[in-house]
Please model this.
Amino acid sequence: MAEFVEVCALWWNTSKKDGKKYLSGSFGPNNKVMLFPNQFKKEDKHPDYKMFMVKKERKEDQPQDGFPPQDNVQAQDNVQPSLLDEEPVLGPDGLPIPF
Model:
């Protein structure tokens, strides 16, 4: 029998934008996983859920990986904005992810 390996834990969340429920959790120290019901399912062969992985936002005032920031390291200007506060994010199928 195959051994189960825990990959991550997920928690229910509610979108501030439209009140819809979704699951999210951490996948390692730098990635966030989000699981959404497939609102575009029209046939049984279409998936019930879609899972997306994004890099976590970097907070400039918090040290990364437990190490204090170094003076000779420049802050990154290309930090991704919060997915729930910005315009819709498109999934791999080109359709908006239902937040």
Q: What stands out?
A: The beta strands are 11-14, 21-26, 31-37, 49-55.
